[in-house]
From TrEMBL:
Chain sites annotated for binding AMP: 208-212, 249, 358, 409
Catalytic-site annotation from UniProt: 208 (proton donor)
The protein's enzyme class: hydrolase
Cofactor: a divalent metal cation
UniProt protein name: Phosphodiesterase
EC numbers for this chain: 3.1.4.-
Gene3D superfamilies on file: 3'5'-cyclic nucleotide phosphodiesterase, catalytic domain
Domain PDEase: 134-453
UniProt entry tagged with the keyword Manganese: no
Entry annotated with the keyword DNA-binding: no
Binding sites annotated in the UniProt record for Zn(2+) 1: 212, 248-249, 358
GO-annotated biological processes: signal transduction
Gene Ontology MF terms in the entry: 3',5'-cyclic-GMP phosphodiesterase activity; metal ion binding
Length: 472
């Protein structure tokens, strides 16, 4: 899971969590106020406390060793103190983007570097998830202001400013604002349970984690509004698209299909090397829906559920990049005479929208997209390192010895992103400014970066160095 370390940038929106006195229920409301700039100091209170916590931890460790040597065991009191210190430290790390009192959020603060700690234990993750659940439960009566709800519809939305429990609230809001809760009689407690169960099924990996799930879902949500799909499609189709986006990478292990097949993993054997990960994501999604407590489709008639299930499976399976060219070619062939009443036309559109949302990071502002690239490369490099150890084939674009940030993006944007996005833009011109143009700018940015790297190498090679009058 990638956790951001915020940095400053101008034109920030300050979002204040205000304890509501409405009916004495103690619910939370989110409001927004404009701000021209934000200022963060390295000597912040949180940083000072973090330093103090390290000192406390060191003193506790020394005391524990001393007592253990003298008595042969660690007293319960010291174990309890260590646990409390660790808990407080994790709490501070998890709430870096909040003020010390946890009362305000700067939505556009920007991000420095994502966080990825592969050493986190299962116990720590269980403890963290429990805290997410408790906060999600406390905030279950949250009411978002209209400004936040409008921001949620935009491709510029910055996930790094929201923690996991808050993103769960935002996902819930998507169902509410699209009218899906009322149209399909979805129980709010069941929606709560389903969303948290979805959350627990995303693994603690660098890229394909819950935050990625949220970002893909948020882009799908933004496209639904930008294209005005509710006026063109049936409500069931909109429900299918949003739900597929949320479920599209469930239980992703952080190793792609090529690794699964080459390593002959259980998933590859189970699905006969045919989109093993995507088939697994689908299976997990519908396993969750088997429980009465998490079945958000319980009130949907059987014939509609069958149609929804087919649509979800089609969308999730389409995210296998091995099928990219085939799907794009089919879509391009129907664009000139696209007909929303044609079932096959709608089916290929849903796949293309799903693919578009899945690989849309470069359509976002650089300060949002760049940390995601760091996460992706970390996951790629983890896999290629493992492949080298196991003697498996290594894809050049995943090899840490051959890849740079610009080299990883230039070809991908030029030959994958832009052809896909521009094809959708032919059918929906309204997405050009908000979604396609940022991708063009990203290509220009990485091309310039690559040129600078190459010029730097040429300059270094041509200059050389001299020792005792001899150029080497």
């Amino acid at each position: 899971m990638c956790v951001p370390v915020p940095s400053c940038r101008p034109e920030c929106f300050k979002h204040t969590l205000i304890k509501s006195a409405m009916s004495g229920c103690g619910s939370w409301c989110v409001s927004a106020t404009g701000s021209n700039s934000c200022h963060r100091k390295d000597d912040s209170l949180a940083n000072k406390i973090g330093t103090d916590l390290e000192t406390i931890e060191k003193r506790l460790e020394d005391l524990e060793k001393k007592v253990f040597v003298e008595n042969g065991e660690t007293p319960h009191l010291i174990v309890e103190l260590k646990t409390k210190a660790e808990h407080l430290k994790e709490k501070l790390e998890g709430l870096e983007h909040l003020s010390w009192l946890g009362l305000f959020k700067n939505m556009n603060m920007g991000t420095a570097h994502p966080f990825w700690d592969h050493r986190s234990s299962t116990t720590k993750m269980d403890t963290y998830r429990k805290r997410v659940y408790e906060k999600f439960k406390v905030m279950s009566q949250v009411q978002l202001t209209q400004e936040v709800r409008e921001q949620l519809k935009k491709p510029t939305f910055d996930n790094w400013q929201w923690d996991d429990s808050e993103m769960l609230i935002l996902l819930r809001q998507m169902f509410v604002d699209l009218g899906l809760v009322s149209k399909f009689n979805i129980s709010m407690p069941v929606l709560f349970n389903w969303l948290f169960q979805i959350y627990t099924k995303y693994n603690h990996v660098p890229f394909h984690n819950f935050k990625h799930c949220f970002m893909v879902s948020q882009m799908m949500y933004g496209l639904i509004w930008l294209i005005d799909l509710p006026s063109k499609l049936e409500p069931l189709d909109v429900l299918t698209l949003l739900t597929a986006a949320i479920c599209h990478d469930l239980d992703h292990p952080g190793y792609n299909n090529a690794y699964q097949i080459n390593a002959r993993t259980e998933l590859a054997l189970r699905y006969n090397d045919i989109s093993p990960l995507e088939n697994h994501h689908c299976a997990v999604a519908f396993e969750i829906l088997e429980s009465k407590e998490t079945n958000i489709f319980a009130q949907i008639p059987k014939d509609q559920f069958r149609k929804l299930r087919e649509g979800m499976i089609r969308c999730i399976l389409s995210t296998d990049m091995a099928k990219h060219n085939e799907i794009l070619h089919t879509f391009k062939s129907v664009v000139p005479h696209f007909d929303f009443s044609d079932k096959e036309h709608r089916a290929v559109l849903y796949m293309v929208l799903m693919k578009m949302a899945d690989i849309s990071n470069e359509a976002r502002p650089l300060e949002v997209a760049s940390p995601w690239l760091d996460c992706l490369l970390t996951e790629f490099f983890n896999q290629s390192d493992m492949e080298k150890l196991e003697g498996l084939p290594v894809a050049p674009f995943m090899d840490r010895d051959k890849v740079t940030k610009p080299s990883s993006q230039i070809g991908f944007i030029k030959f994958v992103l832009l052809p896909l996005f521009e094809s959708v833009g032919q059918l929906f011109p309204q997405i050009d400014a908000d979604v396609i143009e940022p991708v063009r700018k990203a290509l220009a940015y990485y091309t310039e970066m690559q040129q600078a790297i190459e010029e730097g190498k040429k300059s270094k090679d041509s200059t050389g160095s001299k020792h005792n009058g001899i150029t080497t």
